[in-house]
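Question: does this match?
>
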Amino acid sequence: MTRFTGGCLCGQVRYVADGEPTFAGHCYCRDCQRASGSGFIPFIGFAASVVTITGETLRSFVPTGRGGDAVRNHCARCGSLVFGGVVGEDTSHTIYAGSLDEPSLFQPRIAIYASRRPAWAPIPEGLTVFDEMPG
């Protein structure tokens, strides 16, 4: 079983995810671009039951195109973007791959919202590409 560990820049927020991700890829939506200050966010999805998160976070909420809110968790001390979802409420969490202790564990498979990708943010070869969010 693979163990994914990581956390924020200052180390106050930490997580452990045991097992294989349910999905992994790059999101090129405008919200992710703005949240990351980059052309995309690399993300990994896990069932909440396999993720343990410690440390104090601040949450930001952004309405999604599908209804509801995207919930992003930032370290309360250093502000690093670490994971998505509400601990204790959501059935899954999105870990932002840049927060991994071992970045080589990230193996993207999909690219979503590719229609919104800036020309300077390439899509790696071999990813399944979706112009918007897949069904």
Summary: The longest helix spans residues 30-36. The radius of gyration is 14 Å. Residues 3-129 form a domain with the glutathione-dependent formaldehyde- activating enzyme (gfa) fold (CATH 3.90.1590.10).
